[in-house]
Structure formats: C-alpha cells, structure tokens
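About this split. The held-out portion is used to measure sequence recovery: a designer receives only the structure tokens and must propose an amino acid at every position. Recovery is the fraction of positions where the proposal matches the reference. Here is one held-out target exactly as it appears in the evaluation file.
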C-alpha cells in the first residue's frame, strides 16, 4: 500500500512556518496545580491549529487520506 502525503494547509500534518517546536502555543504554564486551566488553553490552541486529533485519539491516517 502506497500512502501519498500532500502537505497542504488543510492537512493534519501541515505545520505553518510560524509554528514550530520552539513556539509556545499558550501563555499558561502547567505548574502541577493548574491542570484544568492549562488543559483548556492547550485544547483551544490545538483546535485552532487543526492538531487536537493527535492528542485526543480522533485522528487516524485513514481520516486524512479519504
């Protein structure tokens, strides 16, 4: 089976040039006591970048290639 990866701006794999591993997605820092606030902020940030499915289990390879 050959999988074709097309990295366009609607793909789950797309990473915008302004995003990266050194870019903070939220100003809220998890300190061991603020999980509810931190989780809410991270969820909003990941949803806005179309990346939430990677952490909540809803993303599958099949969903991106259909």
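Reference sequence for scoring:
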């Amino acid at each position: 089976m050959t999988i074709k990866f097309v990295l366009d701006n609607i793909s789950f794999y797309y990473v915008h040039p302004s995003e990266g591993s050194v870019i903070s997605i939220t100003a809220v820092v998890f300190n061991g006591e603020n999980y509810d606030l931190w989780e809410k902020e991270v969820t909003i940030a990941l949803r806005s970048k179309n990346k939430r499915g990677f952490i909540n289990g809803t993303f599958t390879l099949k969903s991106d290639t259909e």
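Annotator remark: Residues 7 and 14 are 5 Å apart (CA to CA).
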